Amino acid sequence: MHNIWKCTFLVMLLACGTRSSFRIPTKVTFTCCESVSPNRFSHTVTGYKQQIAQGPCVHAIIFETDKGQICSSPGARWVQKKMKEVPMIP
């Protein structure tokens, strides 16, 4: 009878130790511009933010519009002009 308790305790100990070493991985996602467009668009712009190049993300100006976000080329002249007309989003 004493050996049954030892075996039970050992099985429980192993189960607890094994369980803590298996964790569900955290999903890493990127929400960024992986490419930009130099083209103009006709959507209403409410603001912008700058994105630096890091990992899969490229250097971009992200305009917030009435249709969603648009990734634009920071070097385009119209982008520089539009950035002066609308507020920067923190």
From TrEMBL:
<dbReference type="InterPro" id="IPR001811">
    <property type="entry name" value="Chemokine_IL8-like_dom"/>
</dbReference>
<dbReference type="InterPro" id="IPR036048">
    <property type="entry name" value="Interleukin_8-like_sf"/>
</dbReference>
<dbReference type="GO" id="GO:0005615">
    <property type="term" value="C:extracellular space"/>
</dbReference>
<keyword id="KW-0732">Signal</keyword>
<dbReference type="Pfam" id="PF00048">
    <property type="entry name" value="IL8"/>
</dbReference>
<dbReference type="GO" id="GO:0008009">
    <property type="term" value="F:chemokine activity"/>
</dbReference>
<dbReference type="GO" id="GO:0006955">
    <property type="term" value="P:immune response"/>
</dbReference>
<feature type="domain" description="Chemokine interleukin-8-like">
    <location>
        <begin position="31"/>
        <end position="85"/>
    </location>
</feature>
<keyword id="KW-0202">Cytokine</keyword>
<feature type="signal peptide">
    <location>
        <begin position="1"/>
        <end position="21"/>
    </location>
</feature>
<protein>
    <recommendedName>
        <fullName>Chemokine interleukin-8-like domain-containing protein</fullName>
    </recommendedName>
</protein>
